[in-house]
Amino acid sequence: MLFKEKSGVRSVRMAIGLLAGLVGANALAQEQVIQRVEITGSAIKRIQREGALPVQVISKETIARTGATTVSDLLQKVPAMQGFTIEATAAGSNSGGRTSASIHGLGTAYTLVLLNGRRLAPLQDSGSSVNLNSIPLSAVERVEVLSDGASALYGADAIAGVINFILKKNYQGVAVEAGYVHPEHAGGKSANASITGGFGDLDEDGYNVLMTYRHDEQRQLKAPQRRFAATGYIPFSHEGVNYIYDRTSTSTVPANATVSFTNPAVNKAIGFNPFQKATGACADLNVPYLSNDAQTNFCSFDFAATVEIIPESKRDTFFSSGRIKLGENAIAFADLSLARFDLTARIAANPVNVSIPKGTPLYNQYIQPNLTPAQQELATGAVAQFRAVDWGTRDSQTITDVRHLVAGVEAVAFGWDLNSAVTLSKYKIDEKYTGGYMLNSEFRSMLSNRSFDPFAPSGSQSEATKSLIQNSLFKGSIREAYSDLKGFDVRGSREVFELPGGAASVAVGADYRELQQVQTASQAAKNGTIYAFNAPAENDYTRDSTGAFAELALPVLKNLEMTAAVRWDKYSAVKDALAGKDVGDSQDASTYKVTARWSPVQQVLLRASYGTGFRVADQDQIASPVVSAGFTSGSYVCPPSLETENAGFCRPGRQQYDVKRGGNAELSPEESKQYTLGFRIEPSNTVTFGADLWDVRMTNQVSSVSEIQAFADPAKFRELFSPFTNPATGEQKWSFLQAPINIGRSHYRGIDWDFTVGEKYSFGKLSVNVNGTHMLKADYTTPGTDNVWTDSMDRYGIDNQVTFRNVARITAALETGKMVNSFTLNYRNGYTDAAANPYNIATKANITQAIRLQVPSYSTIDYQGKYNISKQWDVRVGVKNLTDKEPPLSLRTSSGHQVGYDPRYADTMGRTLYLNTSYTF
Predict the structure, then answer these.
(1) Contacts of 712 (CB under 8 A, 6+ apart)
(2) What 8-state DSSP symbol labels residue 335?
(3) Signal peptide span per the entry (predicted)?
(4) What element of type H or E holds 276?
(5) How many CB atoms lie within 10 A of CB 427?
(6) What's the angle, vertex CA 832, arms to CA 831 and CA 837, rounded to 5?
């Protein structure tokens, strides 16, 4: 029957199913003593069962059957996960390979990640989201995914839902595991090994100690090792017209040159490539720039062929848990999690500008001969747009260290189930440059004495110059950053009075947290040691918060239960230690949630919830000063209004512009209202079907105007443009400012659903599970507005991502004796690609009316076979992406340096074989 109490995998099969069919048939026979447990989304301990909230449970066996090697791999397979961050974005950013979770596409900042029900230190430079790479997969017993808002219980950041990683407890014995992943094509191999040991039985011996260690290694996957990623110069056809998508760069080797003149409003700057002028063709590694216009005749560099799809990394994780009985009714516990993640990302050689003053030898040799007499007279100097290929790729190593300690007591006293703990959690990164960046004085010396020529082809330097190049490489740290979270919480629950349906229960709790986020730049980054380098912003922010909640569960009837929860939180102003002042104001918010669960008959469950939520802005969003933040993702023609104001600040032709970023002390909390309506039906012990309609509306959201908006209407957003002084050349050019404001609104709605069938046959046990998410809305206001709506539904939105209407996963598993075979189909529908203005081969010009490709639906098939050699030893062999399906063509311009495809929405590895084995002593 539907609500006959069972434990473990029985509840997994009953929960809104993430891969529930993988374990469905095995679950039917398992029974154990009923006990009260705390389920994610409620602070009241109760008998484990289907509740009023949609909690998906991923068991350890389910995790193993997915073939996932990391926590982020696992969560990315969940259909409800959209908008997450992947490790590949480390190629071209300072992410350090961080990965994060996002439920229903609302964004990583709205998904709360917990470890054993408690918060971890967030990413220093990513606000409230947690790096999933810091969670030890080998220690995970199960994962509970609450796909409904939970601010009324957990406070800020839980608007989209909660992901709670439950780690192993009371484990005895020793287990070793090992895995190896081998793609069919070159590159991207990985391996892992772990050992877990535990001794002492908490019930019999009064104590238990558990320790587990795991090591992972990932080798790099280079762009040229996959056909779809080998170039940023991509021919394609659309509606019968032949185009070239050109994402090459005007920072080249040999260098392009931009020449400026007096009275730039009248005498516009021009650009050309001296090598091409002299030889009639662009040099190796370069192609004619397809966005050239009347003012420019550049060559361009194919940087996409030199980046990585997946960076090289090593990960070590350690988890230890200790529990000891303090008499009959109390247990003291301590959990310690340690992780080190070492990632090296390699991207294209450094693009740098080199000043070529008028009258210098380089100017007289390469610039002067290519100017008309009138231009020679009016010229004020030139800048070489140079690609430092002879210095190698830009290599950045980021070492991430995580320490998470929770110590506390669980007790039963005076009828209360009590739990209290202290949390000390720290997330620290050290970013180092290990190749490709030049020492300032050494490089300038090479230019001044002409021992290096930026207008000469790559590889043509003398042996003496090659030695000078090696001696001019900078290697060292550029920044360190950390988040330090200290917290204390206490909560308790008990039965309070009787109702027709049973005993009513209440839970109350309070918590206090202090979060310090610090970033320091190295002396080398600050004192000009590195050529053309803008030092990372330094900060030292601290903010504390206090919260209290109460929850009441009312079993009104035997088949009807209602709950209500309310919470109050207060956040202090941001204490800026470097500025010696408080920034912003203290902020407080109250939230509530009501739920109902009704079972008219045993085989049917109806449930509903309504609640409010909130999220405070990140400390950096509030207190950050204006700092340099790289370049625009796209290339733009200088807007006419800015050119009229100061043409000297314009770049010739279509180019990238500098970006600056800053905070806003006036930001207030974001707010949400949300509801869910769902049902579960189990007509028999072998069939389960369920669905939940959810709806989230957010107001007062923090947003900033996108670069596309700003360059399309620079008059409206004039305050976002200001001159930026290049640290290498001293020249001033227009730059774009990204600054957050409270103005945005959004409305998301969808249906999470699943269907499971499990039957015994003469040949074995067969289970089939189909589960997915169907999105109905993904609407949000354009950044900087509260009434101009857009969406990302099945199209690449201005938020640089896609919300897929349908994401689904179908798994069929057959257990025959010691063997289990399973096949999984992963599906997401097609979408409309980002707008692009490619080069029309027929007209020999970039089109002015943007086109959008239709990216087709994408499906992959995975296989896994598990064989139980003995009760202690099992082996799993699997193949991911059996059909070796490549990512489809995408003309996006964001999310890392990869060009021509989107690694977030498709498998970049190709057909991949993996082998996992585990042995328990």
Answers:
(1) none
(2) E
(3) 1-29
(4) helix 274-279
(5) 25
(6) 150
Measured CA to CA in angstroms, residue 63 lies from 9, 181, 914 at distances of 12, 16, 15
Residue-wise DSSP of 405-425: EEEEEEEEETTEEEEEEEEEE
Instruction: Kindly report, residue by residue over 266-304, the tens digit of the pLDDT.
Output: 899 999 999 999 999 999 889 999 988 889 999 999 988
Q: Is 809 exposed, middle or buried (0-12, 13-18, 19+ CB in 10 A)?
A: buried
The fold adopted by the segment(s) 28-225+310-349+393-438+473-626+662-704+739-920 is: Maltoporin; Chain A (2.40.170)
The amino acid occupying position 884 is D
Nearest partner of 702 among 787, 618, 824, 593, judged by Cα: 618
- To 10 degrees, the CA torsion angle through 594, 600, 606, 611? -10
Token pair recorded at residue 77: 């397979």
Phi, psi (rounded to 5 degrees) for 529? -65, -35
Query: How many residues are given for the chain?
Result: 921
- Give the start-to-end residue ranges of the domains of the chain: 28-225+310-349+393-438+473-626+662-704+739-920
Q: How far is CA 154 from CA 43, 159, 164, 255, in A?
A: 10, 10, 12, 55
Query: What's the pLDDT at 5?
Result: 36
d(CA 125, CA 380): 41
Angle at the Cα of 48 from the Cα atoms of 45 and 53, rounded to 5 degrees: 85
Q: Which helix (H) or strand (E) holds 640?
A: helix 640-645
DSSP 642-710: HHHH-GGGPPSSEE--EEEE---TT---EEEEEEEEEEEEEEETTEEEEEEEEEEEEEEEEE---HHHH
Q: How far is 106 from 699, CA to CA, in rounded Å? A: 13
Query: What does the pLDDT look like over 181-238, one tens digit per residue?
Result: 999 999 999 999 999 999 999 989 999 999 999 999 999 999 999 999 999 899 999 9
Distance CA 599, CA 582 (A): 53
CA pair distance 120, 631, nearest whole angstrom:
32
User: Which residue in the block uniquely carries the two structure tokens 């809104």?
Assistant: 16
- d(CA 549, CA 152) in angstroms, rounded, equals 7
DSSP state at residue 437: -
User: Kind and range of the H or E element at 347?
Assistant: strand 330-347
What does the pLDDT look like over 791-839, one tens digit per residue? 999 999 988 889 999 999 999 999 998 999 999 999 999 999 999 999 9
Q: How confident is the model at residue 907 (pLDDT cuts 50, 70, 90)?
A: very high
Among 213, 283, 222, smallest CA distance to 255 is for: 283
| In 330-395, alpha helices (H) | 361-362, 373-378
Residues 6+ positions from 489 with CB-CB distance below 8 Å: 118, 420, 421, 423, 509, 510, 511, 512
How many whole angstroms separate alpha carbon 369 and alpha carbon 383?
16
Pinpoint the alpha helices (H) of 452-516: 463-471
What's the token pair of residue 816?
Answer: 């025959």
Structure tokens at 481: 């950053």
Q: Greatest CA separation found in the chain? A: 99
Handedness of CA 543, 487, 146, 95 (dihedral sign): positive
Classify the C-alpha dihedral 41-46-52-56 as positive or negative: positive
Contact between residue 436 and residue 395 where contact means Cβ atoms under 8 Å apart: yes
- The encoded tokens of residue 292 equal 């050239």
The answer for residues whose C-beta is within 8 angstroms of residue 630's C-beta and 6 or more apart is 658, 659
**DSSP-H helix ranges across 460-586:** 463-471, 523-526
Q: Give the whole-angstrom CA distance, residue 132 versus residue 136.
A: 9
Predicted model pTM:
0.86
**730 and 689 Cβ atoms separated by less than 8 Å:** no
From the number of C-beta atoms within 10 Å of its C-beta (0-12, 13-18, 19+), residue 361 rates as exposed
Q: Work out whether strand 111-115 and strand 161-167 pair parallel, antiparallel, or are unpaired.
A: parallel
